[in-house]
Amino acid sequence: MKLHLKNGRYLDVRTMTVKSGSVCTEGGIFTYVGNEPPEDNYDRVIDLNGNLVIPGFCNAHTHSPMVFLRSFAEDLPLDKWLTEAVFPHEAKLTPEDNYTLTKLAVAEYVSNGITSCFDMYYYPEAMAKAFSETGFRCVFCGALNNFSESIEKLEEYYLKFNNYHPLISYKLGFHAEYTTSLELMKGVAGLAHKYNAPVWCHNSETKSETEECIARYGMTPTEIMDSIGMFEYGGGGYHCIYLCEEDFNIFARHNMTVVTNPCSNLKLSSGIADLTEACRRGINLAIGTDGAASNNSLDMFKEMYLCTALQKLKYSDAAAMPAESVLKAAFTGGARALEINSGAIETGKLADFAVIDMRRPCMQPENNIVKNLVFGGSRDIVRMTAVGGKILYENGGFFIGEDTEKLYADCAAICKRIFTK
Amino acid sequence: MKLHLKNGRYLDVRTMTVKSGSVCTEGGIFTYVGNEPPEDNYDRVIDLNGNLVIPGFCNAHTHSPMVFLRSFAEDLPLDKWLTEAVFPHEAKLTPEDNYTLTKLAVAEYVSNGITSCFDMYYYPEAMAKAFSETGFRCVFCGALNNFSESIEKLEEYYLKFNNYHPLISYKLGFHAEYTTSLELMKGVAGLAHKYNAPVWCHNSETKSETEECIARYGMTPTEIMDSIGMFEYGGGGYHCIYLCEEDFNIFARHNMTVVTNPCSNLKLSSGIADLTEACRRGINLAIGTDGAASNNSLDMFKEMYLCTALQKLKYSDAAAMPAESVLKAAFTGGARALEINSGAIETGKLADFAVIDMRRPCMQPENNIVKNLVFGGSRDIVRMTAVGGKILYENGGFFIGEDTEKLYADCAAICKRIFTK
Question: Quick check: pTM over 0.95?
Answer without folding.
Answer: yes
